Amino acid sequence: VHSQVCIIFSDFGKMQNVCNLLIEKLGTSVTISPPHFYHTPEAVDALRRQVCVAAVGNTRRKAQEVCRLFGQSLGKPFLIREEETKEWGGHIDSHLSNTSDSLMMQERIQNATVYASCRVFAVFEIKGKENRRNKLL
């Protein structure tokens, strides 16, 4: 009797632990196929949001450093605009099924990894001189 079980994991470490446990308990009676990696639309959307928020945070920190250089303090933002978002990588490896055995796990992970970048434009208020207390920090 042959059975096939398909499990979807969202955590790579848990997948490895379950596979190791199955092999440990069932030995040669179980065959574990190489995993197929993919990204849900929700996961890619969450990545886009995280990258945009990080870009805005980086822009704010850079503006604060410039203000400190001139003895000013950074105020509230007047305008924040997302200029460009790019994504690359994240190839679904199901089309590699003929060569999946030849790909090492690290290569499969690298092929399935999604990268994103975001460019933002921000205009901040610049306040007057920093007070003495902030300069001492």
From TrEMBL:
<dbReference type="InterPro" id="IPR030312">
    <property type="entry name" value="IRAK1BP1"/>
</dbReference>
<protein>
    <submittedName>
        <fullName>IKBP1 protein</fullName>
    </submittedName>
</protein>
<dbReference type="GO" id="GO:0005737">
    <property type="term" value="C:cytoplasm"/>
</dbReference>
<dbReference type="InterPro" id="IPR007497">
    <property type="entry name" value="SIMPL/DUF541"/>
</dbReference>
<dbReference type="Pfam" id="PF04402">
    <property type="entry name" value="SIMPL"/>
</dbReference>
<keyword id="KW-0539">Nucleus</keyword>
<keyword id="KW-0963">Cytoplasm</keyword>
<dbReference type="GO" id="GO:0006955">
    <property type="term" value="P:immune response"/>
</dbReference>
<dbReference type="GO" id="GO:0043123">
    <property type="term" value="P:positive regulation of canonical NF-kappaB signal transduction"/>
</dbReference>
<comment type="similarity">
    <text>Belongs to the IRAK1BP1 family.</text>
</comment>
<dbReference type="GO" id="GO:0005634">
    <property type="term" value="C:nucleus"/>
</dbReference>
